[in-house]
Amino acid sequence: MRVGVFYFPTDYGIDIAELARALEERGFDSLFVPEHTHIPASRKSPFPGGGELPKRYAHTHDPFVALSFAAAATKTLTIGTGILLVPQHEPLVTAKAIASLDQLSGGRFVFGIGGGWNVEEMENHGARYQTRFKQMREHVLAMKALWTEEEASYDGEFVKFDRVWSWPKPRQSPHPPIILGGESDHTLRRVVEYCDGWFPRTRAGFDAPQAIARLARMAEQKGRDPKTLSVTVFGAPNDAATLEGYARAGIHSALLAVPDKSRDDILAYLDRVAPLVKAAAA
Questions:
Q1: Domains and CATH numbers, the chain
Q2: How far apart are CA 202 and CA 235, in angstroms?
C-alpha cells in the first residue's frame, strides 16, 4: 500500500515546493491538496467539522498552480487534488489545466473530486447546492470527452459546446485517474458510473474490509469489475497497525494529514511518520 499526505497549501505555510521535495526524499508516494476558491464572509454554511472554520480554509493557493510547483520540484511524487470542487470550475478551462499539468509532470496527476458543502461559495460560481452532483457529473463527462476525443462535443443541462479541438491531451491514457470523495451509497454509485476510484474519509466507524466489500457489491450490481476501481483513504491515522489493516483489506493508498503548523514543525512531523511509509510498502 502506498502512503502519501494531504496539505492545505496556504500562503502562510511551508513552501509547497520544499514540502514536495521533503516528501519525495522521505519516500512518501503522493501530495494531495484541498481547495476553496474563496470563503464567503457571511459564514452561513456551518463547518462540517463543527466549531469555527479553521483559518487555512480561506488561505489556500490555487491547486493547479501549487501542484505545478510541487511537480517541478520533484521527479516521482504523485500529485493530486483532494478534492477539487468540480461544480465551481468551468470544464473547458479546467480540462486544459489538468491536461497541461499531467503532461508537464510526466503523467503524475490524480484528479480527486467532490461536490462541495459551502452553499454560498458554490452559489457565487453560479452553482446550486441541490444540483451540484448532477453538475459535477456533466463537468466530468465533458472533460473526459475533451481529453479523449479529437473533436469533442457535449450537450447537457449544465454544459454545452459544439465540436471543439482541445490540446494538449493528458499524458496518462485515457486520462488521469478520477477519484470521488464521500462515504454514502450515492457516492459509490457515482464512483462506479464515471470514476476510477473511491476517496473515502476516515470518519468514526470506518472499517476498511467493510468499505472494500461495499464498493465491490456496488460495482458488481452495476456490471463493473471491482478490480478496476482503486480506494484511497483520506485522513488516515498515523498508526502502523491501522495502516497494516488497510493494506490487508485491499486499500490501495492512504493519505496522512500534514498539520497546519510552521515549516520546522512540519518537517519534524514528516521525520516522525516517515517510517510508516516504509512499513506500509513492505
A1: 2-281 (3.20.20.30)
A2: 6
Quote the CA–CA distance of 31 and 256 in Å, as a whole number: 10
Cell of 130: 441541490
Amino acid in position 206: F
Tracing cell 456533466 back to the chain, one arrives at 138
Judge whether 58 and 33 are in contact, CB under 8 Å.
Answer: no
The H-or-E segment that residue 19 falls in is: helix 16-25
* Category of 251 on φ-ψ map: left (φ > 0), alpha (ψ -120 to 50) or beta: beta
Q: Does the pTM of the predicted model rise above 0.85?
A: yes
| pLDDT, tens digit (0-9, with 9 covering 90-100), for 131-177 | 999 999 999 999 999 999 999 999 999 999 999 999 999 999 999 99
In degrees and rounded to multiples of 5, residue 46 shows phi and psi of: -70, 145
pLDDT digit string, tens, across residues 246-282:
999 999 999 999 999 999 999 999 999 999 998 888 7
From CA 164, how far away is CA 96, in angstroms rounded? Answer: 12
- What is the C-alpha separation between 75 and 104, in angstroms, rounded? 11
